[in-house]
């Protein structure tokens, strides 16, 4: 028999205790990287502002073309083939609209980097076998954000039609560029962020903060809370957007419970083994 002692397993560096100063330094580094990613994305969107604005005007233009005989869009629709137009009542509005689109567009472009930095910051709180979920966390969040933004953009035409109709027959719509850009960008961002909430629920289940049993037991409160949340974060406030956001979130809520249950079941089997 050999007298050599068995080798001790190497410690996981991410599981080592960090001091408060090290945590703050780590947080600062992650914030700087995320900020640079947003800045680069914003510069790109700022450079292509006209093309992005034409894209955002798509739902409004389709609405005006569909109801052109009713003069639904009033003076804001040009029949000469120029499409819809927005008004600018303040010299600063043009710049503020461009900066708003650039910022939100930069956030969308930098979303994978933001999520990766968040994940890397919280990794020390996870077990070694849970870190393999990093790629799935980032990819699923990006995919759900894009799906949410696409749903918001697809329902924007109906939302605008609802809002314009409620103004009355004697009101001629003429949207300010800053107000329209704010509505569209907030709709897309609110839907995208709302669709990532189930990913956070799965993440909290991985950390042990929540359990599938607790989430399933609170399903009634979750449904009511989902409608309240959708009503709060939906900028337009119309019922079409409310349902378009609430119903998928409820489905994703139960999907998050199912994923958490599968993860907990796998953990239990590995512990028994």
Structure characterization notes:
With 273 residues, the chain is mainly α. The chain has one domain (19-268). The protein contains eleven helices and two strands. The chain has a two-stranded antiparallel ribbon with strand order 1-2. Strand 1 (77-78) and strand 2 form a beta hairpin. Mean pLDDT is 80; it is low at 8-15.
Give the strand line-up of the largest sheet. 1-2
Give the fraction of residues assigned to helices.
55-70%
How many separate structural domains? 1
What sort of overall outline do the alpha carbons produce when their principal axes are compared? globular
Spatial gap, N to C terminus: 30 Å
Hey, roughly how much beta strand do the residues contain?
Answer: under 5%
* Overall pLDDT: 80
Number of helical runs?
11
Structural key phrases:
273 residues, mainly alpha, two-stranded antiparallel ribbon, globular
Structure summarized in a few sentences:
With 273 residues, the protein is mainly α.
List the helices and strands and how they pair.
Elements: H1 20-47, H2 49-56, H3 58-66, E1 77-78, E2 83-84, H4 93-109, H5 111-122, H6 134-165, H7 177-195, H8 197-207, H9 212-217, H10 219-233, H11 239-272
Antiparallel strand pairs: 1-2
């Amino acid at each position: 028999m050999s007298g050599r002692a068995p080798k001790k397993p190497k410690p996981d560096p991410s599981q080592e205790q960090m001091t408060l100063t090290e945590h703050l330094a780590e947080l600062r580094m992650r914030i700087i990287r995320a900020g640079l990613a947003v800045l680069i994305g914003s510069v790109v969107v700022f450079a292509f502002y006209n093309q992005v604005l034409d894209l955002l005007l798509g739902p409004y233009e389709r609405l005006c073309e569909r109801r052109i005989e009713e003069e639904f869009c009033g003076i804001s629709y040009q029949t000469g083939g120029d499409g819809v137009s927005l008004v600018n009542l303040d010299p600063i509005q043009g710049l503020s609209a461009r900066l708003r689109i650039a910022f939100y567009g930069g956030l969308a472009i930098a979303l994978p980097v933001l999520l990766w930095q968040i994940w890397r910051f919280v990794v020390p709180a996870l077990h070694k076998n849970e870190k393999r979920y990093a790629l799935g966390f980032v990819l699923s969040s990006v995919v759900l954000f894009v799906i949410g933004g696409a749903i918001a953009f697809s329902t924007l035409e109906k939302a605008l039609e609802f809002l314009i109709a409620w103004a009355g027959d004697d009101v001629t719509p003429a949207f300010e560029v800053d107000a329209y850009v704010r509505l569209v960008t907030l709709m897309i961002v609110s839907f995208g962020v709302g669709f990532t909430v189930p990913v956070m629920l799965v993440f909290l289940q991985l950390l042990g903060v929540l359990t599938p049993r607790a989430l399933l037991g609170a399903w009634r409160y979750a449904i009511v809370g989902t409608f309240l949340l959708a009503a709060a974060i939906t900028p337009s406030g119309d019922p079409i957007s409310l349902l378009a956001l609430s119903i998928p979130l409820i489905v994703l809520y139960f999907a998050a419970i199912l994923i958490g249950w599968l993860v907990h079941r796998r953990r239990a089997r590995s512990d028994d083994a």
